[in-house]
Design a protein that fits this description.
The complex is a heterodimer of chains A (443) and B (324). With 443 residues, chain A is an alpha+beta fold. Chain A folds into two domains: 208 residues, D-Maltodextrin-Binding Protein, domain 2; 188 residues, 3-Layer(aba) Sandwich (D-Maltodextrin-Binding Protein, domain 2), CATH 3.40.190. Chain A is built from 18 helices and 13 strands. A four-stranded antiparallel sheet of chain A has the order 3-11-6-12, sandwiched between helices. Chain A has a three-stranded antiparallel sheet with strand order 8-7-9. Chain A has a two-stranded parallel ribbon with strand order 1-2. In chain A, strand 4 and strand 5 form a beta hairpin. With 324 residues, chain B is mainly α. Chain B folds into two domains: 40 residues, no CATH class; 243 residues, MetI-like (MetI-like fold). Chain B is flat and about 120 Å long. Classes of the chains: A alpha+beta (443), B mainly alpha (324).
Chain lengths: 443, 324
């Protein structure tokens, strides 16, 4: 019996359940698309509250912008938003406590130390948000997956990374007949020549964040691979690693002073601003702070994204990633916020004075915000092509994180700089790294 | 009553059996009441210790025997695997050695300086009350603030200590080989972190000692003086025996606080360079919390227990013997 409806509307292979699924997905997709275009959050988050935990940014102006942005987003969408900023080194302990308690912030943030691999079973799958942003802004950098994906699913949404380029003094390099450094060898030669004139260089041989980044940049440029691409097998025991250690020892002997053994993350900033340093390997916070504290030095300070080694050019960035606990009481609003901040990357780059480097390829269209307006920083607009993260070429697994937090790599370089035999150091360092990876594999 | 049920035969001893008195419960005796009262008074302290010390200790023991991580709600028993792992870690031995050096070295320095300061503060002089208040400032300052102050003073480039030493022509200029890098040279780095611990802790030692000294009756000291006892003899034979209980308790506290002190090393060097200042608490924190391997971190921190236990037992036994 006909009910009067057209027979063609119902395909014989499409039952009621499939029909609802398909149309539901289409409607949801269309609504999400509309929402993204209008930047209008869904009505169900109105009247809810959202708590987020984030680090205190190195650029205070960025935090001012971020807090304002958050407040405006909350007001616009009717969400009562609370933003807590704490120093980035305290975040892991805070997350351990929140996880143990099963309560805490709805929206969390990994700064530098990426814990996606550690907590992914307890995090909301954010593949919908990440893939949506990727599609909208030309796709994610390959390195983004290392920080936010586990088993192909996005358990975090990359926000930005901090690049750590070479900051060098043009006047001092010119005084020894050198121009812009292109290779690690150039940096070594310049440091050697300029140390004699009272302008040594320095990279941290100590237990701080920068030590972990800087020596890895040298390692990767020498062709060292910490693990295989799966991140499961340690490949540190190599000719390249031995060469990197040998080079670092020579660079220390020729171009540094023992003070590098005591440095923290800010020591090289002060070293540059004091006018002593010939070059440093640090984030552009050093560049910005020198602008204020020593304008004469600032005038002569230039930026190189990274220098090349025998194994290529690799800069080790510091990623920052959003994540949502499964126990979050407001997953919908947290996702909306990630979406909103993802849509505001250009403003964020401006507010951070070019410090925040985007993970989305589309944001590398020149001129990039802030970087494109500063001739010295403009070179960083291709940073996405040379960026790697800790554990390269493997992902930032919990084992890779433990190697980072126990400072094994900086300690290897320190031992060699202090005169330990390279083979003894390799035996110790590789042994420690293998022990850590074996423990994680076993558990 | 006769077996037959009649009256008892003449001459027999009459025993009247009263109905069995209801046994007085031991719980109602004055002794029991006294015990009950005593234990009731003790209970808050016992519960407090059980909850705040016993439970965390048992929990850390559970963690150390499991493969617990910061992200695994359910851990599996792994026996002594984590302890074995710590013993296989070369850095562990460095941390163990540094922990012992740090505790013993700082303890001796705090004892010497605290004693000297206590005797100085005991003497009558103008402004004594103000000085007594001022010396406890290092102990009362928030640790993060004071340690950051020291970090600046130990800075490799802008150290005020080096500046002063240079002005006094005791060291060379910045950049010269004899410019000390306080937190960068292995021996100096360990000495520097010990120094900050001593700076922060010796006022506490002095105050504890001062409390003891003021409790010694002056007539006993005077009598010893009349008998011709020198200052050292008076200190050794009269004062120390009289204030021994206070000294023991102060030493016990200081040993525990120093051995488990994470903040100073964490803020100044984080165990670097190359493990020169690594101590068990920093290694445990970086492995267990920052590295996420809670089980292994707990095992490392539990190595503090066998270090502390004999010292505490010895101190408390000596204290008890003295009481009797």
């Amino acid at each position: 019996m006909s009910d009067g409806r057209s027979a063609e509307t119902a395909s014989p292979t499409l039952d009621r359940r499939s029909f609802l699924k398909t149309t539901g997905a289409l409607v949801a997709g269309a609504s999400l698309g509309d929402m993204l275009l209008a930047r209008q959050a869904p009505a169900q988050i109105k009247g809810t509250s959202l708590r987020m935990l984030i680090w205190s940014h190195y650029v205070p102006a960025y935090d001012v912008w971020f807090d304002k942005f958050s407040k405006e987003w909350g007001d616009k969408n009717g969400v009562k938003l609370r933003v807590d900023h704490i120093p980035h080194l305290e975040l892991p302990a805070r997350y351990a406590a929140e996880f143990a308690a099963g309560a805490g912030h709805d929206l969390i943030y990994y700064a530098g130390q990426i814990l996606t691999g550690q907590y992914f079973r307890n995090l909301v799958d954010l593949s919908d948000v990440a893939e949506g942003l990727g599609k909208k802004y030309g796709g994610w950098l390959d390195a983004a997956k290392s920080a936010a994906q586990v088993g192909g699913a996005w358990y975090g949404v990359p926000d930005y990374f901090i690049s750590i380029p070479v900051l060098w003094r043009k006047d001092l390099f010119a005084s020894v007949g050198m121009g812009e450094p292109k290779t690690w060898d150039d940096l070594r030669k310049a440091a050697g020549a300029l140390k004699a004139k009272g302008h040594p260089t320095g990279m941290q041989f100590s237990h701080c964040n920068d030590a972990n980044h800087n020596w890895r940049a040298l390692m990767y440029c020498f062709g060292v691979k910490e693990t295989d691409p799966s991140g499961q097998n340690v490949t540190l025991d190599s000719k390249e690693m031995r060469e990197a250690l040998k080079f670092a020892k020579a660079m220390y002997d020729e171009g540094m002073t023992p003070e590098v053994f005591s440095w923290d993350d800010a020591s090289d900033n002060r070293f540059l601003a004091s006018g002593v340093a010939s070059w440093i390997h640090d984030a552009i916070s050093a560049y910005h702070s020198t602008r204020v504290t020593n304008p004469k030095v600032f005038e002569q300070t230039f930026v190189v994204p990274e220098v090349a080694g025998p194994g290529g050019t690799w800069n080790v960035g510091e990623p920052n990633v959003w994540a949502i606990w499964k126990f979050s009481k407001n997953v919908a609003a947290a996702k909306e916020f990630i979406q909103a901040i993802g849509d505001s990357q250009k403003d964020a780059m401006n507010a951070s004075l070019g410090y925040n480097m985007p993970f989305l390829k589309g944001h590398y269209t020149k001129p990039m915000p802030y970087l494109g307006n500063d001739p010295k920083l403009a070179k960083l607009q291709d940073q996405e092509k040379i960026t790697a993260f800790l554990g390269f070429p493997g992902p930032m697994t919990p084992a890779a994180q433990e190697v980072v937090t126990t400072f094994i790599i900086p300690d290897m370089f320190t031992k060699v700089a202090r005169g330990a035999a390279i083979e003894d150091t390799m035996k110790w360092g590789v042994g420690e790294v293998r022990r850590i990876y074996a423990k994680h594999k076993a558990s | 009553m006769s077996p037959g049920g009649g009256p008892p035969p003449p001459g027999s001893l009459s025993v009247t059996l009263r109905p069995r008195a209801r046994a007085v419960s031991w719980w109602r005796t004055p002794t029991a009441r006294r015990y009950f009262f005593g234990y009731t008074l003790l209970a808050p302290a016992v519960i407090y210790v059980a909850l705040l010390v016993g439970a965390p200790f048992l929990f850390s023991l559970y963690l150390a025997l499991s493969d617990a991580s910061v992200s695994a709600p359910i851990a599996h028993f792994v026996g002594l695997e984590n302890f074995k792992s710590a013993l296989e870690n070369a850095t562990f031995y460095t941390a163990l050695r540094n922990s012992i050096l740090f505790t013993v070295g700082a303890g001796i320095m705090k004892g010497l300086l605290g004693t000297t300061l206590a005797f100085l503060l005991l003497q009558p002089f103008k402004g004594r009350k103000i000085i007594r208040a001022l010396v406890v400032i290092p102990f009362t300052l928030p640790i993060a603030v004071s340690v950051l102050g020291w970090k600046w003073m130990f800075d490799s480039q802008f150290s005020v200590i080096n500046w002063a030493l240079n002005r006094l022509h005791l060291i060379g200029a910045y950049g010269s080989p004899d410019w000390p890098v306080w937190l960068g040279q292995p021996g100096l780095a360990l000495l520097s972190v010990m120094f900050v611990n001593v700076w922060r802790g010796f006022p506490f030692s002095a105050i504890v000692l001062l409390a003891g000294l003021t409790s010694v009756p002056p007539e006993i000291i005077e009598a010893a003086k009349v008998d011709g006892a020198s200052f050292l003899t008076r200190f050794r034979k009269v004062i120390v025996p009289m204030i021994a209980p206070i000294l023991f308790i102060g030493s016990a506290f200081d040993t525990v606080f120093t051995l488990s002190d994470l903040s100073i090393v964490y803020l100044l060097t984080n165990g670097g360079p190359d493990g020169a200042t690594e101590i068990l608490p920093t290694l445990a924190y970086n492995t267990g919390i920052r590295g996420g391997a809670l089980g292994r971190g707990a095992a490392i921190s539990l190595f503090l227990f066998p270090l502390l236990l004999p010292a505490m037992v010895l101190l408390l036994r000596t204290l008890r013997r003295r009481q009797y």
